[in-house]
Amino acid sequence: MKTTHKNLLVAMTVSTLAISGCTSIGKMLDKKPETIATAEKSDAAYYQEATTALDKGYNREAIDALNNIRTFYPTGRYAEQALLDLIYAQYQANDFEAVTASTAEFIRLYPTSQSVDYALYVQGVTNMGGAPKASRLFNLDQAQRDTTYLRLAFQDFQNLLNNYPNSAYAGDAAQRMIAIYNEFAENELVAARWYVKRDALVAAANRAKWVFQYYPTSTGVPEAIAILAYANDNLGLTETANQYKTLLKINYPEYLNQDGSVRLSDTQAKTRGQKLLSAVSFGKLGRANNKTDGYQGQYNGQTRTQVIEQANSLTLPNRNNQ
Predict the structure, then answer these.
(1) Where is the Outer membrane lipoprotein BamD-like domain (predicted)?
(2) Residue 113 per-residue DSSP state
(3) Of all residues in the chain, what percent carry a pLDDT higher than 90?
(4) How far is residue 81's CA from residue 172's CA, in Å, rounded to a whole number?
């Protein structure tokens, strides 16, 4: 994190205290011993309780202990790690709304921490799953739901790559960005297929063209070209249709029948959807620690450098410009 950002945060804090006045500061200091006195255990005891609970998978008990640390010892030696473990426990407890609140708080409170990349990563993974109270990732076809959270996740992972390119999470985040990019293309194809089935060929061509133009490296491009060829052919726009058929013949001949007509296959679409769903399950989320964490990344044939470079080349178009 840039020093200027840290200085800005410090300046804001100093300004706030100055405005409050010496009396307010005195009250704050007077209340601190009283607050700590209400704690039933030391911060070390609470943290040991939380660690034991996490090791046993008792996430709710861990959350209670970690919240006690943050309530009674907000500036103590375990405060930062407690918030990191709280993020993990909340995620494991499927309390996704709390996760994003905690990751945002961690980034705000500890902007220079070496674990900010972890907070960004978990925030992205959580947003990638969708709205906090909606069906989660593996229970719902991404392409058939609101893509707002996918866009947020893409931004989280992009921030991670831009600011922490050497992070242990960078490779996994890059693969998730690629998967999200493909999901946006698939989202357009879902609509295009719907229009094709209803012979709304102009609308189908428009959605397919959006994929071809704005997601040119996505896995949806072959089918988008096929839909464009099919739609234009059936609209009587033979010259344009033949141009797309030529692209299919050279690059994706499986979309053409022997007589040169376009083959639109639901099987191909379903297979692609299955691959995309599996593509976002890389790695294993672990607890963050200043020395080690439980994360293990997985890569599908590409080197770490290649997948990061590929992700960095991707952009999501502004949907309002369609």
Answers:
(1) 40-246
(2) -
(3) 65
(4) 23
What is the rounded distance in angstroms from the CA atom of residue 176 to the CA atom of residue 294?
19
Contact 176, 126 (CB under 8 A): no
- Give the residue numbers spanning the domain of 208: 185-283+305-313
Q: Check: CB of residue 279 under 8 Å from CB of residue 179.
A: yes
Coil vs helix vs strand at 256: strand
Instruction: Kindly state whether residue 258 falls inside one of the protein's structural domains.
Output: yes
Residue with token string 């191909």: 268
**What pLDDT is recorded for position 131?**
65
Residue 153 near residue 183 (C-beta atoms within 8 A): no
Integer CA distances (angstroms), 149 to 14, 71, 74, 226, in order: 35, 30, 31, 29
> Using alpha carbons only, what angle is made at residue 275 by residues 272 and 279, rounded to the nearest 5 degrees?
140
Residue 269 has pLDDT above 70, yes or no: no
147 plus 72 within the same structural domain:
yes
Q: How many domains does the chain have?
A: 2
Distance between CA atoms of 269 and 186, rounded to whole angstroms?
A: 9
- Both 48 and 168 in one domain: the answer is yes
State pLDDT tens for residues 37-82. Answer: 587 899 999 999 999 999 999 999 999 999 999 999 999 999 999 9
Q: What is the tens place of the pLDDT at every residue in 275-286?
A: 443 334 444 466
